[in-house]
Design a protein that fits this description.
It is a single chain. With 436 residues, the protein is of the alpha+beta class. It is 30% helix and 28% strand. The strands form six sheets. Strands 3-2-1-4-5 form a five-stranded parallel beta sheet. Helix 7 runs antiparallel to helix 8. The structure holds adenosine monophosphate and glycine.
């Protein structure tokens, strides 16, 4: 099969790496890809949200399956366009992608179909929102309705902070039209977990549980990021909790959508808060998580292409359950100094080869660029430069999470670039739980 992966981050590197292991994959393309992906796939210079060019490419190159990484093309309707032209694609339709693209849509669906989530109210008027905050008090959570590159949520400790969030989102319009409506919701407490499933709208196969680390600094301090590290499995999600999440969150959502006339194909990712009153849904994403995917896929023994193909053809029922490596996997993100705010690009990355030589270590590139320094005969010299906020996802396996952490940091310590920043406590919470 000829397979096209859309996107350019660590998640897409992990997808391409896993797809390359499939007996079904003959040729892999990635648009636009990155320095590391170029080792497994032919990188094509088309942006992830340029649907017209992607369509044209898939038609011309006779692509048998397209896999979409990021949310933007999904919420713009890439799946609908491909399907309309008879091209096979893995991911939800534009209507289904509203689960991520509109938090109001997601919350109203959850309320209608009894999916456990924080109590909430929707506002389209900033004055009313501020009045409500004064009555309801703090803490509370203010969320922009639309996509905001993961920055549209403010967990406000005080009434002033919450009102400031309303001002920024609805009046200063820092996220543009994404702030036409907001949600104000109850502040939940507990540990977070990411539950990802693949579905064809009827059947569901669950991927292993994972946990992300959203804040930039150790001890969950500092601003939110796209994710600074992840591990899988998440011991906080016991077998019983996993089943409860599938029953009350995943199935109710997919069945609810079906009742609304929306058939959901692709990955459904539920961000869950494990509260003392049971699991509650924080958000849905309509795609693979990043960096969760980097920590999940190295443990998956089954053929990912077979699973995605079955889901996009509505034939998931034919698949038996998935096979997993029982070992734990940890992914530590190496980021550019300054991220998630301003940072410089173009720094030379050293130590990659040494790190990669360690057993059971795989380095997923997120923001890197390959530079060929010298291309004489067989002796091509190349180097990688930083080209984004999150630069690398250094990923390692171990018998326990504790072992996987020690092993992964051994690799991280071999790598360097000017300004490199990484968290030193990825997986720490899970170790405490493992040893309890
Ligand atoms: P979201 O994009 O909705 O997942 O929100 C981003 C982050 O904000 C989550 O990963 C949580 O850490 C936090 N968050 C979102 N909603 C709530 C809530 N109701 N209570 C407490 N924290 C929340
Ligand atoms: N790791 C969080 C996300 O993918 O949205």
């Amino acid at each position: 099969m000829r397979i096209l992966v859309i996107g350019s981050g660590g998640r897409e590197h992990a997808l391409v790496w896993k797809i390359a292991q499939s007996k079904l994959a003959d040729k892999i393309f990635c648009a636009p890809g990155n320095g590391g992906i170029a080792n497994f796939a032919e990188c094509i210079d088309i942006k992830a949200d340029d649907i017209l060019k992607l369509l044209e490419f898939a038609g011309k190159e006779k692509i048998d399956l397209t896999v979409v990484g990021p949310e933007a093309p999904l919420s713009s309707g890439i799946v609908d366009e491909f399907v309309a032209r008879g091209l096979k694609i893995f991911g939800p339709s534009k209507l289904a992608a509203q689960l991520e693209a509109s938090k109001v849509f997601a919350k109203e669906l959850m309320a209608k179909y009894s999916v456990p989530t924080a109590a909430f109210k929707v506002f389209d008027n900033p004055e009313e929102a501020k009045k409500y905050i004064e009555q309801a008090g703090a803490p509370c959570v203010v969320k922009a309705d639309g996509l905001a590159a993961g920055k549209g949520v403010v967990v406000a400790k005080t009434v002033d902070e919450a009102k400031q969030a309303v001002r920024a989102i609805m009046e200063e319009r820092i996220f543009g039209a994404s702030g036409n409506k907001i949600i104000i919701e109850e502040c939940l407490e507990g540990e977070e977990a990411s539950i990802l499933v693949i579905t064809d709208g009827k059947e569901v196969v669950a991927l292993a549980s994972a946990q992300d680390h959203k804040r930039i600094n150790d001890g969950d301090c500092g601003p939110n990021t796209g994710g600074m590290g992840a591990y899988s499995p998440a011991p906080a999600v016991t077998k019983e909790l996993f089943k409860e999440i599938l029953d009350k969150v995943i199935y109710r959502t997919i069945d609810g959508l079906a009742k609304e006339g929306i058939n959901y194909h692709g990955v459904l990712y539920a961000g869950i808060m494990l509260t003392k009153d049971g699991p509650k849904t924080l958000e849905f994403n309509v795609r693979f998580g990043d960096p969760e995917t980097e920590a999940i896929l190295p443990r998956l023994k089954s053929d990912l292409v077979e699973i995605m193909l079955a889901a996009s053809e509505g034939k998931l029922a034919r698949l038996k359950s998935l096979e997993w490596d029982p070992r734990a996997c940890v992914c530590v993100i190496c980021a550019s100094g300054g991220y998630p705010d301003n940072y410089e690009k173009g720094k030379i990355i050293s130590g990659l080869e040494d790190a990669q030589k360690l057993n059971d270590i795989v380095i997923f590139h997120a923001g890197t660029k390959l530079r060929i320094i010298n291309d004489v005969g067989q002796r091509q010299e190349r180097e990688y430069l930083t080209d984004g906020g999150r630069v690398l996802g250094v990923t390692g396996l171990g018998k326990t999470i504790k072992e996987a952490i020690a092993h992964t940091y051994q690799a991280v310590e071999k790598i360097n670039f000017s300004g490199m920043h990484y968290r030193r406590d990825i997986g720490k919470k899970a170790v405490a739980r493992e040893e309890r």
